[in-house]
Amino acid sequence: MVAKEQGERCAWAETDPLLQEYHDEEWGVPEYDSRALWELLMLEGFQAGISWLTVLRKREAFRKGFRQFDPAKVARFAEADISRLLNDEGIIRSRAKIEATITGAEIFLDMKKSGEDFAAFLWGMAGGKPIQTQGPRPVQTELSVEMSKELKKRGFKFVGPVIVYAFMQAAGIVNDHSEECFRRKTVTKLKHGTL
Which of 6, 28, 111, 130 is the most buried (most CB within 10 A)? Predict the structure, then answer.
């Protein structure tokens, strides 16, 4: 765990030790790996209507059930895999979200096959570098609406503007750490997700 420097932590992360760890080590750190971004987007989709803490608590079970979110493996999932996942108490058991993840893997691979890198696609929409926000956090922005439209156009599901904005925050496409948060300055200095 990152040693907490002087200053506060974003208020949303103070309610649970797992949220604190996620906030201190992952949230807002710019992610440029296409597979990792796809995994995060799929997990954000599972979060729709549920708390992010629930997803975090189940993340390792999700990774096991979805073969470490390897798009090539997930794209080959058939009805037997869907049944297996619907019976897996370790994950959020929603047929629509499971099927959306399989479809998302197929789209990811189609983009790759056509020469379109998933990370370059997402970061290109943001101008190629993290957006440093100020003031209160919105639930969606013009960029999240635009990104949502582009993802939907490609066939992704559970990618509404609010989900996409939460994804952008988590992936470091926007730095939404509060002005008082001890992580804001550190995350602002990050270029490629590592210190």
Answer: 28
